[in-house]
Amino acid sequence: MPDTPAGLRHVEHVMGTVFSFDIRDRPTPAIRRALAEAVRRLHRVDAVFSPYRADSHISRLGRGETALDDCPPEVHEVLALCARAERESDGYFSVSPAGSLDPCGLVKGWATEAAARLLRAAGARHTCVNGGGDLAISGRAAPGAPWRVGVAHPLRPGALATVVTAHHDLAVATSGTAERGAHIVDPHRGVPVTALASLTVVGPSLTSTDTYATAAFARGRGAREWLEGLDGYEALAVLPDGERWQTSGFARYGS
User: For the chain, which terminus, N or C, has the lower number of CB atoms within 10 Å?
Assistant: First the structure.
């Protein structure tokens, strides 16, 4: 966890992806302890929720080898959040999108947001926590300078689809096909969605922003109308033919 002139930075490989911490505050002992605790908790989240680990609580629960009452409290919390997201999205967010229990569509954003809260509680006010492309941003990158986040273009390797400018605390989440192909399933039809190439959603809460990005992507052509109805959330979509659309308020963030 080396110091930098701007603060403290750390990269952790966990949950099958890369988490990065960019802290622009002076690295006090309390902030260092919070960073270490955040990393420890990410590994616990992986052990509890990974559908790729046969011994994880979520895998054992999905196979019927354990009961919900015997799972850790965080399983109850995540499944309750998933149930809420399913209701809010008319079922386009699903805790079992491919037929088996898999809350990964919510867990990464939820875990990233929880890590950011730990840092804030320790006194860090200017941070960017990036959990595999899901970002929880607070404060400023430098005095008077907002955080600016490049969003990769799904069809043009090395190019950016947009740059999101965070004028205040902000969450950013992107769902798409660039890295994993057409892996997001429409839960109502049981088939992968191909109407969009990528969808970036910004909003105040990363847990919700992440689930809304997944649910909206799963809606495909109905995504824009649904997103316009969400208070405080905006989005940019790139279509498979390279065309794009954005919600009415996204211009405040994207360039």
Answer: C
User: In Å, how far are 43, 104, 148 from 108, measured between CA atoms?
Assistant: 12, 6, 21
Nearest residue to 163 via CA among 70, 78, 236: 236
Helix (H, G, I), strand (E, B) or coil at 7: strand
Residue 26 CA to residue 34 CA, distance in Å, equals 13
Q: Is the pTM of this model over 0.85?
A: yes
- The residues, any chain, with a CB within 8 Å of residue 63's CB and separated by 6 or more, are none
CB 254 within 8 A of CB 236: yes
Q: Using alpha carbons only, give the angle 97, 214, 69 rounded to the nearest 5 degrees.
A: 50
**Cα 200 to Cα 12: distance, rounded to the nearest angstrom:** 23
Distance of CA 123 to the CA centre of its chain: 23
Q: What is the pLDDT of residues 39-96, one digit of tens each?
A: 999 999 999 999 999 999 999 999 999 999 999 999 999 999 999 999 999 999 999 9
Both tokens assigned to 38: 């955040």
Token pair 């860090």 is found at 124
Q: How far is CA 69 from the centre of its chain?
A: 27
Integer Cα distance of 132 and 146 in angstroms: 21
Can you tell me the distance from the alpha carbon of 89 to that of 87, in angstroms, rounded to the nearest whole number? 5
Question: What H or E segment, with its residue span, contains residue 72?
Answer: none
Q: Dump pLDDT digits (tens) for 176-205.
A: 876 665 578 888 888 888 999 999 999 999
d(CA 208, CA 106): 8
